[in-house]
């Protein structure tokens, strides 16, 4: 369940969303140092009247006083001017371009001259979402926190790997021919680590011809060692060692079972290239190379804003109500895509409440986290009905529209915008399957761009069925792989989820349709492995 932030202490709420008070203090400091936050501090804070409520995002709710609404409208009029902001430079054009405005259902949306954002085809939408983002700044993290992060700088070996010659077997290090006299090192008065260390102690001996000493796997090979006789092939009588009947003649051969220093990598060699998404094996390799921390691109910080007065968070819905399908799964979905959800909340289906939630004026820890984040994902409200406010809020906030609808089904009313403070807004449709397709098509590529990762190319599958044409629009169809063919799942409508829940991937049917056996583009599902 989402927190009711107006009635929860900051410490309790931060812990509920995976943030400690110490992290809250760090976020306060980050945001306070940023130009974005300094600009916000110059604004006048909006406060509800006594008895009014606050939305989950700290903005004024629909019960706020008319004075709050008036100040909001006045603030936008002052910023945009009498002409509503005509002639302003588009964000990101370096101030040298002319802002172009497109009209959608009577609302003016600021767009770039570079492309018309309306009704883009599926592949173009993916490319634009990825290209709109730039890699985030570097940060240093411990190895334990590096999994799944994008490596910003190559990892070099700080010493030879392995850094000493070691035994590959339990047995005896030997010099010369058998029988060998068993020797051991002299016990030091004080051990280096305060206690005996058999792996290191074996290296304290210098073997003379005809001598041997016991050694463990990974133990330091003594000076003058010719090879390692494994335990299974040795016979000890008193202080003498010989081969047993299972040993080969002449065993051990020269350097047998000895791992030389630098066998895997030499000091200074590159072990992991920059730009990779770190997996467990690479983190282990970084540790072997001698590193305690790694320099990675900062994971994109994401905020969630759910809308819909008809949505309930628990229990069985009555007619006219629906269960929340976004709150329980979006944080995990974002994590699978490489982002991190800082805060999540809900706004009422009211234009001023939505504007206040999106604008994220920093009045408390939660709005401060949103204001200093990278991406705001909204759910619902991207249509054109009187109850849909996301697009109108973007117009009021003078946001730059990058994607204003995608020629795909489901998921057509998907939005991508850049807010005045530099944050991205991804507007997901309210129907759950449509929203999931929008996450894969827009949010995934955007987060990849922020992480400095390349845009993943679609995979290819063979369609198991023929599809009739749907001119001007791609269809995103969950499928199951059966005998090497992508068979469409059942229940593919935008409000249905059972087909996607059991799917192996999503195939993209072009507008002209396809025949059975045609090769099609497909999107992987981040939760499907193998």
From TrEMBL:
Entries under Gene3D superfamilies matching the protein: MoaB/Mog-like domain, MoeA, C-terminal, domain IV, Molybdopterin biosynthesis moea protein, domain 2, Molybdopterin biosynthesis moea protein, domain 3
Q: Which PROSITE patterns match?
A: MOCF_BIOSYNTHESIS_1
UniProt entry tagged with the keyword RNA-binding: no
Cofactor field = Mg(2+)
According to the UniProt entry, its GO molecular function terms are:
metal ion binding; molybdopterin molybdotransferase activity
The metabolic or biological pathway listed in the UniProt record of this protein is: Cofactor biosynthesis; molybdopterin biosynthesis
Q: Could you tell me where the Basic and acidic residues compositional bias lies? A: 102-112
What segments bear the compositional bias annotation Polar residues? 1-11
Top-rank taxon, per record: Bacteria
Q: Which residues form the MoaB/Mog domain?
A: 303-449
Keyword line: Magnesium, Metal-binding, Molybdenum, Molybdenum cofactor biosynthesis, Transferase
Family to which the UniProt record says this protein belongs: Belongs to the MoeA family.
What is the documented function of this protein? Catalyzes the insertion of molybdate into adenylated molybdopterin with the concomitant release of AMP.
Q: What is this protein called?
A: Molybdopterin molybdenumtransferase
> What is the native source organism of this protein?
Arthrobacter echini
């Amino acid at each position: 369940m989402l927190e009711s932030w107006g009635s929860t202490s900051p410490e309790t709420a931060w812990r509920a969303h995976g943030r400690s008070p110490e992290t809250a203090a760090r976020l306060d400091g980050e945001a306070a140092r940023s130009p974005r936050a300094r600009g916000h501090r110059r604004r006048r804070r909006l406060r509800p009247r006594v008895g009014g409520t606050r939305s989950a995002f700290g903005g004024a709710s629909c019960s706020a006083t008319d004075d709050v609404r008036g100040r909001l409208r006045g603030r936008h009029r002052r910023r945009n001017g009498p002409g509503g902001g005509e002639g302003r430079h588009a964000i990101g054009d370096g101030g040298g371009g002319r802002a172009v405005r497109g009209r959608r259902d009577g609302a003016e949306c600021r767009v770039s001259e570079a492309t018309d954002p309306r009704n883009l085809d599926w592949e173009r939408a993916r490319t634009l979402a990825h290209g709109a983002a730039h890699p985030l700044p570097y940060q240093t993290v411990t190895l334990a926190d590096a999994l799944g992060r994008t490596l910003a700088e190559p990892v070099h070996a700080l010493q030879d790997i392995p850094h000493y010659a070691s035994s590959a077997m339990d047995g005896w290090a030997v010099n010369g021919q058998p029988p060998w006299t068993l020797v051991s090192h002299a016990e030091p008065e004080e051990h280096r680590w305060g206690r005996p260390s058999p792996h290191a102690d074996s290296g304290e001996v210098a073997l003379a011809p005809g001598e041997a000493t016991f050694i463990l796997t990974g133990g330091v090979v003594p000076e003058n060692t010719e090879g390692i006789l494994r335990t299974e092939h040795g016979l000890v009588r008193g202080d003498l060692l010989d081969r047993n009947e299972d040993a080969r003649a002449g065993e051990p051969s020269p350097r047998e079972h000895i791992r030389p220093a630098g066998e895997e990598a030499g000091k200074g060699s590159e072990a992991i290239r920059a730009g990779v998404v770190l997996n467990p094996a690479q983190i282990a390799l970084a540790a072997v190379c001698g590193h305690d921390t790694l320099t990675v691109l900062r994971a994109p910080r994401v905020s969630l804003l759910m809308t819909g007065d008809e949505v309930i968070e628990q229990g069985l819905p009555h007619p006219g109500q629906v269960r929340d399908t976004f709150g329980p799964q979006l944080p995990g979905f974002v994590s699978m895509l490489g982002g991190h959800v800082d805060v999540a909340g809900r706004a009422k289906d009211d234009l001023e409440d939505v504007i206040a939630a999106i604008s994220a004026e920093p009045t408390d820890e939660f709005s401060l986290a949103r204001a200093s984040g990278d991406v705001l994902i909204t759910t619902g409200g991207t249509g054109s009905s009187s109850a849909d406010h996301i697009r109108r809020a973007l117009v009021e906030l003078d946001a730059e529209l990058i994607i204003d609808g995608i020629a795909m089904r489901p998921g057509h009313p998907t939005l991508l915008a850049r807010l005045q403070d530099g944050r991205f807004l991804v507007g997901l449709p309210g129907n759950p399957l449509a929203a999931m397709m929008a996450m894969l098509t827009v949010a995934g590529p955007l987060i990849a761009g922020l992480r400095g990762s390349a845009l993943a190319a679609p995979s290819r599958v063979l369609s198991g069925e023929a599809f009739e044409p749907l001119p001007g629009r791609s269809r995103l169809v969950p499928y199951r792989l059966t005998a090497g063919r992508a068979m469409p799942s059942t229940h593919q409508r935008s409000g249905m989820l059972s087909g996607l829940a059991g799917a192996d991937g999503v195939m993209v049917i072009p507008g002209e349709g396809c025949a059975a056996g045609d090769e099609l583009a497909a999107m992987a599902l981040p939760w499907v492995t193998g």
